[in-house]
Amino acid sequence: MENGAQQTPATTTPPSPPMPKVGVAVFLLKGSKVLLGKRLSAVGHSTFALPGGHLEFGESFEECATREVKEETGLIIDKTEYLTVTNNVISEKVHIVCIFIRAVPADVNQKPETLEPEKCAGWDWYEWNNLPKPLFGPLEDMVQSGFNPFPTT
Ligand SMILES: Nc1nc2c([nH]c(=O)n2[C@H]2C[C@H](O)[C@@H](COP(=O)(O)OP(=O)(O)OP(=O)(O)O)O2)c(=O)[nH]1
Ligand SMILES: [Mg+2]
Q1: pLDDT grade, residue 16 (50/70/90)?
Q2: Using CA positions, which residue lies closest to atom 32 of ligand 1?
Q3: Of 28, 75, 107, 135, which cross-links 35 as Cys (Cβ 3.0–4.6 Å)?
Q4: Where in the numbering of this chain does the Nudix hydrolase domain appear (predicted)?
């Protein structure tokens, strides 16, 4: 090489190892019912799950809950409250620390819309004592453990 010109070595970025992500899922409660939708995403395909998604940079858990429910169902939520957190290793590549928030619809007469049809087949209210099957794995685990999202009065 002339004049000692430096040649930039070819670099290849090594694949980054999978990292845990933060999810926020919402127990949206109406009377004794909870809002669930059949997932069409690869993770938990065809299982019934709560509305929710991944925490974005700078968001509070409540902000994420409000945003995800609005994006996925069009519903405006109210009275958001932290419930619990679970650590879910779902597959070799998917590890989610999931924050669970409880909320109620601001308007009980507002109907949920399927705003992300590629991710969810449709939303409906289900009696807590008669949940549809199969539930999304992490949700099934919570139900099996006796978890109850309703406020004790
Ligand atoms: N939506 C939802 N997520 C849950 C539940 N239980 C649970 O552990 N999670 C965890 C695993 C999910 O992969 C993760 C994020 O939710 P998601 O899979 O619906 O994410 P998304 O595509 O709607 O969100 P995004 O990436 O567009 O932000 O939260 C649940 O019942 N519903
Ligand atoms: Mg989602």
Answers
A1: confident
A2: 50
A3: 28
A4: 19-149
Q: Between the CA atoms of 135, 136, 137 and 138, what dihedral angle is there, to the nearest 10 degrees?
A: -110
C-alpha separations of 118 from 31, 102, 115 in Å: 29, 25, 9
Is the CB of residue 67 less than 8 Å from the CB of residue 23? no
Contacting residues for 150 by C-beta, under 8 A, at least 6 apart: 29, 32, 128
> Taking 50 as the threshold, does the pLDDT of residue 1 lie above it?
no
Q: Whose CA is nearest to atom 23 of ligand 1?
A: 53
What would the two tokens of residue 115 be? 């705003």
Residues with CB under 6 A from ligand 1: 23, 25, 41, 43, 49-54, 88, 96, 98, 119, 136, 138-139
The share of the chain scoring above pLDDT 90, in percent, equals: 88
pTM: 0.92
- Could you say which DSSP state residue 130 is in? G
| C-alpha 100 to ligand 2 mean position (Å) | 13
